[in-house]
Structures
1.
Amino acid sequence: MLTIRNLHAKVADKDILRGINLTVKSGEVHAIMGPNGSGKSTLAGVLTGKDAFEVTEGEVLFEGKNLLDMKPEERAGEGIFLAFQYPVEIPGVTNNYFLRASVNSVRKYRGEPELDAAAFLKLVKAKAKVLHMPEDLLKRAVNEGFSGGEKKRNEIFQMAVLEPKLCILDETDSGLDIDAMKAVAEGVNALRSKDRAMIVITHYQRLLDHIVPDFVHVLSEGRIVKTGGKGLALELEAHGYDPIKAGMATV
Amino acid sequence: MTTATQTIEQFANKEYEWGFVSDIEAEAIPKGLSEDVVRLISTKKKEPQWLLDWRLKAYRYWTTMEEPRWWPNVTFPPVDYQNMIYYSAPKPKKQLKSLDEVDPEMLKTFEKLGISLDEQKRLTGVAVDAVFDSVSVATTFRGKLAEMGVIFCSFSEAVQNHPELVKKYLGSVVPYNDNYFATLNSAVFSDGSFAYIPKGVRCPMELSTYFRINAKETGQFERTLIVCEEGAYVSYLEGCTAPIRDENQLHAAVVELVSVGEGSQIKYSTVQNWYPGDKDGKGGIYNFVTKRGACRGRNSKISWTQVETGSAITWKYPSCILIGDDSVGEFYSVALTNHKQQADTGTKMIHVGKNTSSTIVSKGISAGRGQNTYRGQVKVLKGAENARNYSQCDSLLLGDKCGAHTFPYIEVKNTSSTVEHEASTSKIGEDQIFYCKQRGLSAEDAVSMIVNGFCKEVFKELPMEFAVEAKKLLGVSLEGSVG
């Protein structure tokens, strides 16, 4: 589904990604871990087309198409979804309205007919039920006055409604207490399917207790320095990133 | 350049859609302003002596006045009042009996503007008075309204058919010597709309005036007078457009609202979309308008809602004088400036009676090199026991070359009153736009959504049909402005 080859990117004049190689197949869940400043969020930004990042080398193919040539909204149309680390507030625009505009933009991109208000409401209500989303949250302005937990749940809710092919979760556990994290993880797990892939970016192993990955990659200084199964996360939890970094240095 | 800025700019560079010129023969008087011109206008309109006298009084007073340069943040070259035509009327000028007699070219113009003057074709209950250049060309649904005692006609017709009402209320809220532009209007006003809602009648449909400036080098000076008796209610809408012209055109209107009786209510909504000039600031309308309402009855209410997207310069402060005890004044405003537009707008709430209350919600949006100023006054007089005011002024900036300014003036002479003022300034963030794009929205849709969200509190005050119109208009006015 997703192939990243030798990806280099910089922010301002600072090289952040220095040759990432990664292949993600549908149905797989990949965790990307790494210390602060290793390039995790940059990777999410590059995959979704955020301006601030400049790709200097390498390629990214999504279902055979050159992702880097597409605008952010086209990538969304292709089925890439980013659950933001810091979801943005849009005052005065209700969650419902925003989401409907979003769903219909994506449908339009795919050449599908737009959903009318009734059909949309039906879809949203069904999804809200599955994710135990309180319906009043839908009537409130996008993320405005939401608690940290509500914001993250709202991201997962949007993900559920948009039914993307590739979900990128950028530090979805940050700022959440254990109960909120469990609720979010439960939502994510409900969306796991053989047709969908996920990239879960996180600092901590605790999220991976709840969203169990197929692969764990360790990112350090802009490169994937180690790849393993779910056990790798536990190892990192026990010993930290330093041994891996040290290992790198000796290579 | 960042995409945010690019989109903001694309948004801002969208062409003005209403800039066409209709080929309609007009009868105009020569350029220039003098006592003779005032007399000529009055004669053409077959006015009674008292009205001519009133005009002349205004004209003479005007000649002693100086063009105001009120605020340092609004600048424009001097207006040449002698190089302007003060009266232009589409031919033929005979009294029209039905729409069939209206010039087809004119009907086409209004159709193009989305205003159908054909009652059969109108789906919604909105009665329209169409004012083309200086005169009213058609008023719809008149018969139906008359059955309920509601008078809705052009100002000229009101002068002929209801002189006692016009005489009683003309200048009663905005006196002839009020300010430079109102005084000029009093001398040369050409036409406008008149509405009278009798005691106990809730006007069954929205009344609406659509103003169109077509002729060149012509000023438009219309006057609107709305009177509501005890327990009566009316919702009134006003829309305006003009062709694209290189030179600036002056629009100096006066609107007077009188909530006479106890419990009377007037809701006045404006979607102002005069030609704003091109992106370099060439051409456009100078919109120098005086709008004021008096709540005379106990428990009466006047509510102004305005969406201002057009004009090179907008200068207007729709105001409420709250005389009756328990009367209520409201002002909801969205003002957008793009390119080199300047807007200095706000309101005045004058609390005279006891327990009077007022609400001000102002949303200013600046894009391009637009300058947007909120200027408002809240005045609580000595006798206004327990008066309350709440003001909220929010500004949204798109890009980094525009400006937003807020000047609230508060004057309180009664200690039992409560006055609150809140203000905020925000910028559409790259983060907001990227968030929307990541959800599949184009940059333009994102900006339009964010701006509409920002204006929501005002749009919800507009009649449904107008709210849809206003949202579209904001989208268009901003096009070429974000990313």
2.
Amino acid sequence: MIKRLAIALAAMLMAFAAQAEVLRMAVTTSFHNSGLSDILLPAIAEDTAIEVQLLVVGTGQAIRLGEAGDVDAILVHSRKAEEAFVEGGFGTHRREIMYNDFVVIGPRVDPADLQSAGSVRDALTRIQDAKADFVSRGDDSGTHKKELSLWGAAGLDPKTFGGWYHEVGAGMGASLNTATGLGAYTLSDRASWLNFGNRDDMALLFAGDESLNNQYAYLPVNPERHPHVNAEGAGKLEAWLTGPRAKELIDGYTINGETLFVFNAKPR
Amino acid sequence: MVVAASLSAPRHHFGLRHAVVRRRGSTLLGPVTLALPPVGLTIVLGPNGAGKTTMLRAMHGLDRLSEGEVLSDEPLQAARRKQGFVFQSPIMLRRSVRANLAYPLKLDRVPSGQAAEAVERWAKRTGLTAVIDNPAPSLSGGEKQKLALARALIRKPELVFLDEPCANLDGRSTREIEELLSEAVEDGTRIVMTTHNIAQARRLATDAVFLFQGLIHEQGPADRFFDQPQRPETQGFLKGDLIE
Amino acid sequence: MNDILQGLVSAFWLVVTFDADLVEISLRSLQVSLSALVLASAIAIPLGTWLAIRRFRYRRATIALLNALMGLPPVVVGLIVYILLSRSGPFGVLGLLFTPTAMIIAQVIIITPLIASITHQAMRDLWADYHDLLISLNASKRDRIAALIMDGRRTLLTASLAGFGRAIGEVGAIMIVGGNIDNATRVLTTAIALETGKGDFALALALGFVLIALAIAVNVLIHVLSRTERAGRW
């Protein structure tokens, strides 16, 4: 039996075949959930012969992965953290690629009447006044940071909120699942919401405020700090992501007929 | 008190000198001094708890001596290599009868063809051929005991210890075991065995040892031991008195 | 309930159409967990046996430690392996993070104590039974261990299968050290976590059913293999 197992094992290990040029990029859950990566990755492989391996994590972890040199580049949406990353010498520079927007999701019955809110500030104040259940990512992700800054801009402090404010410490999908279960409001990026399968009685209740825009930026990891990173590949990928094919694919990506992303990379 | 056996044919020396076995503060055996006659079958008699099993295990090196020494021409490990031991409740490897018989030869790295031949021969000799591919743990008590004996003899040991080999066996199995033992003695194997069965002791013994409360009370050639026992405890025991 | 039915239907279609992604993910799950199983068994079975037959000073403490390690939270193992294998960690130069190898390392750490502990318990009983005979036959230490492993193989198989069950169903550690990278380190459990996150319960359940079927199939296969082998030996 041992011999048979050994042969099977050897066959399996051989199946871990050698790979083409690989580039590891940490991206946020919201980007991956949008489904855009499924469109972009094959095109990248076609045009540049680079196999991009995505690590789908929260912004906080994506930044840590870049700092540790465990990835070659990161694609995230949290400007302050990105700038600190570049200032700390972990990334060579920050390049804006595209943006999408955040939306407020909630139960169709809409107990806080968000549908008649005039601004995101108004919408959040209504939730707080109604003490309606609200699910926060609570995971230090870009979306979580965005949510906190929106509360701040509305002059409210989540630390003072009562039991209606739920910090779940989870990714976007899991948070949406939780919000669905609780019949609670939550802040989501539009893409994650449109791709979300378990909608039940939930609906998009507020969107369109300019402060809900969500800018994605690309940051290559600094090869001076981590000599092993694939800096050349990261450069090629940046050129591709800011080029015409990326613009066409990003602007043309829709879910249920809705455009999700707006390409806004500036040529060098 | 201790009678030194004649060592006229010193094929090998074997015995105990001032041997004491203590466990958890109580003395199980000794001090005991014993030299085995060079040939024959020694029966160790005595009531329960007299130290019979302990003495055999000590001679075989299974139980550590607290004092004294095992008398042998060779160091313990090397001496044990030329010995066999059959336990009161036989220990069966969880394998076939065939694999049980072959195991000691396998340990000795005997070539497999030669080993297979010896296994067949011993299976035949012990009447186990019909069950040779059965799992050893499924054998009857008599078959297990015969297998254990054959497994001890297959290496052609110079000295074999048997601890109550016929306890709980019926007459037929007992007779078969006794025949195997007689044949082994004829082949020159030295045997030391304990028994409760005085009739069996008389049938097999060339010499005998009487052990009582951890001490040797009497020993000597079988005819004198059984016909003219010197000590009152031995006389009582052989008559069938209850001694404690 | 409807979700479960849908999941069953999706699972059925994924399997009958031989869905390429499903096949790849399932094969990777098997590769990682079987490799971990073989490596962990190679460490744990001799270790557990050795602990059963050797008397040494810190034996009891070692056994207690082993039993405690059995309850290691996989997530913590994942985190520690992650830190060790990270480019900024002590083994960073090996570049193993986010590879199947890293996942195998984490799983070996998770299941070795489990297999060793079950092995130790089984071998302790067998050794109590065999001790006098093997000493009497002058079996060397190596021969004694070999005899115990040989004759205890059915229990050892059960121990290994328990380890395999834990490995293939594990998600916390391999998510962290593997990164759940599509086409590289995605396995059934991490794919299930991902699809659940997207709210696609039908696909997640379908993958779950495939996982269960795979675990059962491997168990049955190993039992059949060992039975044919046993038949020849008795």
